[in-house]
Amino acid sequence: MKTKKIIAILLMTAMLFLILAACGTVAEKFDTSKDREGNAITLPDKIDKIISIGPSNTELLVAFGFGDKIIAVDEYSNVGGIKSDLPRFNMYAPDGEQMIDLQPDVIFITGMTKAANDDPLKVVEDAGICVIYIPSSPSIEDIKEDIRFVAAVMGADAKGKDIISDMEKEIDAIKKIGDTITESEKKTVYFEIGAAPWMYSLGEGTFMNEMIELLGAVNVLAGQGDWFSVSAEIILDANPDVILTTTDYIDDPLGEIKSRPGWDVITAVKNNDVYYIDTNSSNRPNHNIVIALKQMAKAIYPDKYN
């Protein structure tokens, strides 16, 4: 009899745990004692006023439904869902004193702001304002962790899960097709993020390289690391099947590539397989990378992804 009671208690405990887990009351709590750069932070009890530095941060906060809480942004955050007349800061040299005057509860800031400075917002931190650094993440999994982190900071865990779930569905559907592409079908890709004469591209250790591989294609510069300058000779030698570009600061980026001296011998140029990929969704490490991923899929394998 005693054994039956113990079994019954164990079964009830297990059922209760399952019920609580299904309701979301038993969940792993994301650590918000440090920002995504590893700096110790102390969140305020309430977040009503946000300064968002970095377009990827701004887009994510808007996606969470907090656009109305944003009181200032950087000069590149030209996104919908925020007021058009907000104060704007130089992303690479923000004015800390001006930020203090705005009295924000928190500041979300890109790691790129530290590129030329050790701690440009120390004066803001010293004033007791919570500064949250989110560096540019190198992988899709890291981007998802960024989303989970911001969700936890803002008390929007459920919304964060929804955004990540939507991302994963899109990515998984594309990867499923990419996994079916055989070695003989794999196309080589040159992905350009800076036009001539200062050409820039990417290699391993970047989420964009990961995206190319998800599609079942091969980055001709995968052997390189991160982001780097490229010479015309390297691309001529690589002879990619497809060329993608995110350049949007010249009038005709596709025509410029196809008219480069000597590039008419490249397979991608000969076959007119040169395509533009949306700059914002491909370069900003947040949930919108799936927009670029779908564009890349249709450009590289139009017969596979439609």
Structural overview:
The protein has 306 residues and is of the alpha/beta class. Among the domains are: 50-135, Rossmann fold (3-Layer(aba) Sandwich), CATH 3.40.50.1980; 181-300, Nitrogenase molybdenum iron protein domain (Rossmann fold). Helices cover 40% and strands 13% of the residues. The protein contains 12 helices and 11 strands. The protein has helices spanning 2-23, 55-63, 96-102, 122-126, 140-153, 157-178, 207-214, 232-238, 253-258, 267-270, 279-283, 289-300, and strands spanning 50-53, 70-74, 88-89, 106-110, 130-134, 188-192, 200-202, 218-219, 227-229, 242-245, 274-276. The strands form 3 sheets. The chain has a 5-stranded parallel sheet, with helices on one face. Strand 1, helix 2 and strand 2 form a beta-alpha-beta unit. Helix 5 packs antiparallel against helix 6 and helix 6 runs parallel beside helix 12.
Q: What's the helix-strand series?
A: HEHEEHEHEHHEEHEEHEHHEHH
Poorly predicted tracts of residues:
13-27
Give a quick account of the main beta sheet: strands, pairing sense, barrel closure: 5 strands, parallel
Kindly name the structural category. alpha/beta
Mean pLDDT across the residues is 90
Main sheet strand line-up: 3-2-1-4-5
Q: Which second-level CATH architecture of the domain at 181-300 applies?
A: 3-Layer(aba) Sandwich
The CATH homologous superfamily of the domain at 181-300 is called Nitrogenase molybdenum iron protein domain
Count up the helices: 12
CATH topology of the domain at 181-300: Rossmann fold
How helical, in percent, are the residues?
A: 25-40%
Q: Which CATH class of the domain at 181-300? A: Alpha Beta
The separation of the N and C termini measures 64 Å
- How many β-strand stretches? 11
